[in-house]
Amino acid sequence: MNFGRLIAGASLSALWSFVGNGAWAHPSAMVTGNFTSQPIGHFEFCKRNASECTLRSRKTAPLPMSSEFLAQLQQLNVSVNKAIKPISDFDLYGVEEYWTYPVDAGDCEDYVLAKRRVLIEDGIPSSTVLITVLRRPNGEGHAVLTVRTDIGDVILDNLTDAVLNWDETGYTYLKRQALDHTGRWVSIRDGDAPLVGSVH
């Protein structure tokens, strides 16, 4: 945990350096591919919350990063991570995949849904806060929230309180929500094998 915090601190310092200097040497955004299968947990979530999975957005430009926005993301990540107790879907609901808005406990997808809802309620476009699934270095499937900014994509993750650049996490990214349709998903270039259940 301490090692993770050291890495997180370094990444956050780099972001603050950008904000202070008004320039960013190496902006990095995920490169996405074609439409791909929807994770089964999201498919079932959409059946229960149809209005949330049919949103279309014409505004797909990334958000401008600022010190205020970075602080907002950091505060949100910390507050949701502290408020929700990590517990598996199987232990909580008796099934392997059940994506839902958490009350006080949930797994990684539930943290993502909670953070995404807060940002959208704050006026952030749905095209810039995208549910993203990936593989951790230990091979386990995981989900995070990708926030698209003009300095690159950053990650809100329940496994760390820091806001990280997506390409500094050590994860292998598989797929994420499409920019212009909340119910569709696209592949991510470095993803090579889905580790979460999907519908085809």
UniProtKB/TrEMBL annotation:
Alphabetic keyword roster: Plasmid, Signal
Where does the secretion signal sit in this chain? 1-25
Q: Name one Pfam family in it.
A: Peptidase_C93
Asked if the keyword Signal belongs to this entry, the reply reads yes
The question of whether Signal is a record keyword is answered with yes
What is the protein's name according to its record? Transglutaminase-like cysteine peptidase
| Organism expressing this protein natively | Shinella sumterensis
